[in-house]
Amino acid sequence: MKRKIAFLLSLVGLVIVVAFVVKALTGRGTKQGELRVDSSPNVTIFLDSKNIGRSPFKDKVNAGSYTMKLVPETTTAQLTSWEGKIVVGPNLLTYVNASLSESELSSAVDVLWLEKISSKQSELSVTTSPDGANVLVDDITRGVTPLSLADISAGDHTVTVTSVGFLTRTLKIKTTPGYRVIITMKLGLSPGGQPEATPSPTLTGTLTPTPTKTATSSADPAKPFVTIKDTPTGFLRVRMEPSTSASEAARVNPG
């Protein structure tokens, strides 16, 4: 009888040990991080084509790299979707903030996540699309994107990104020793931010074709050509635009 009880206790103990090992191995293989998504307007969120919910979103997801797609939920306007890469680290936060509009060019998206590093310092990495944007940390210019800073102090900071023709983006971050804060931004065009075409120079004045002459030796240029008649000023003003208020580009003598 005692042998049976001892056997049963051993069996129960073995089951408990196996369950503990399986749980430990399973937990080790499926480490999770926290994903937060804010947007304007609200969006449906897809990770690797799987619908995980709608914004505002805050939940645990398995650590790893994903393709995220944000699809606007609105019937009043035809807004563009956004798709990009994100990284979720184990026991770390990934934050996405999107402002979607009718044009992909004017939509803006900020993605922020943490990455563990071997250094005991705190670091900051900023990339933008398009690149070449100015980065200010606590109102001090630190460089242009893509930018990596290994000398940023631990604590709370304000990161501001500016670029001519694009909306200014500002993020509040907290840097921690042993971690790198990674920021990727898709910049949105500001109203009227598209570059204007450079106007072509335009001649002002009367251009009169010269009648055909008989074949004689002359210094006239190859035809067709035009002759500028005498003017009261003794020359013809060439302006940048067909307006008397336009800037003068050159002067041409009659003949």
Q: Please, could you describe this protein's structure?
A:
The chain has 255 residues and is mostly beta strands. The chain has two domains: 31-186, no CATH class; 199-213 and 221-255, no CATH class. The chain is 11% helix and 47% strand. It is built from one helix and 20 strands. The protein has one helix spanning 2-29; strands at residues 32-40, 43-47, 50-54, 57-62, 64-72, 82-88, 93-99, 108-116, 122-129, 134-137, 140-144, 147-152, 155-162, 169-175, 179-186, 202-203, 207-209, 226-228, 236-239, 248-252. Strands 4-1-7-8-15-9-12 form a seven-stranded mixed sheet, with no helix packed on it. It has a four-stranded antiparallel sheet with strand order 3-2-5-6, with no helix packed on it. Strands 11-10-13-14 form a four-stranded antiparallel sheet, with no helix packed on it. A hairpin with a 2-residue loop joins strand 2 (43-47) and strand 3 (50-54). The longest helix has 28 residues, at 2-29. It starts with a helix and ends with a strand.
